[in-house]
Amino acid sequence: WPDRDALRRTVLEFLPLADVVKISDEELEFLTGHQ
Question: How many domains does the chain have?
Answer without folding.
Answer: 1
